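INSTRUCTION: Work out how this chain folds

Fields: amino acid sequence; protein backbone structure tokens

Chain under study, with its fold:
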Amino acid sequence: MGLFDIIAILITLSALFSWINYRFLKMPTAIGLMLIALLVSLALLMPIPGSDGLENDARAMLDSIDFDATLMHGMLSFLLFAGALHVNLFELAKQKWVIGTLATASVIGATLLVGTSVCVVFWLLGLDVPYIYCLLFGALIAPTDPIAVLGILKSAGAPKSLEVKITGESLFNDGVAVVVFVVVSEVAFGDHMTLPQVAHLFMHEAGGGLLFGLVTGGIAYMMLRRVDNYQVEVLITLALASGSYAAAEHLHISAPITVVVAGLLIGNQGRDGAMSQLTQQHLDNFWELVDEVLNAVLFVLIGLEVLVLTLSPKYLIAGVLAIPLVLIARAISAGFPIALIRRFRSLSPGVVTILTWGGLRGGISVALALSLPTGENRDLLVTVTYCVVVFSILVQGLTLGPVVRAVAKRADIEMERTELLPSDGAKSASDAGPEADRAAP
């Protein structure tokens, strides 16, 4: 099957499933698309007369798609740039300590917690998986996907500061988690590395991506200032998203961090100092459309990937058991730093609950799992990853709205109780009791 045929099929399915979701299911787009694709895939796996040919054709198409290359070395550059382009840097700076901690320390903490706990689960199930592979699973399952979350948060009336936290964390923890995955992969499959070498590799990947993003974004900004033609300016941003990502990969620095930094620079400094209102309107419309189309294709792909999984009972049990472990690790790795930050500043009520339940996993986790070397350990980790991703998108995604509303309602009740309590040192006559009567003249 040729490349054009595959692209045509995926776009056609995305359009068809989007129409079905909009007309009948009325779910958030990403969740609805993945659910429909998953149901279609499961239907193809059923022993339905005449479906063998369709199943084989679908498997052949998916086998010809390198999911890791498609997402990690293609779609991700545009998705991250589109996300960063619409983030207000001023609002992001207000939450810099929370976002910075969640995107670094929490990612590393979650990697260790998930890796250690799933290692125990694999051992209990009689699956011989080296600890380093368990850490790889911890790293690949750490990045969260904001796409399906943000629309739900807005419709549920979540605080704006919480939206900024989730968006900012997701943009940066994608890059950090990929760096952690690369570092652990080097330890697992490369030469023996000492702890200082691991730290140097991490700093080279993350720091290099940050600096390169500033350089490429700065060059694009200077080019934008010298033209006033929205077609040229949109083309410059398209070149920045793809060119900086590709160059960063060849320089062996973090391409996701590069494109996020470049997108933030253009979306804020570039928007204010180098673009007319007409250019801003066309730029926003263009990147919003790119974001929607690529995410539609991505979630359809995720739903169809079930056709190429190794559906061993032990693997599926391990996947089901991994779900609560990932949630617990998320709660601990996000809750501990949030508790420390609360000592110095106020945060939204129930922020840990929403960050935990709203920490949906998506295509990056699946792509990283599929990038592992072929073998039994890879098949196991891909299946477990898929179970966690499907649960997070379908179950957590569909119930996040009620969770946000319940947290907000509880916060309102607590606030009302606080307001009704008498202030310190001011007792009412009824509270003072007989002692007040005896003290009266």
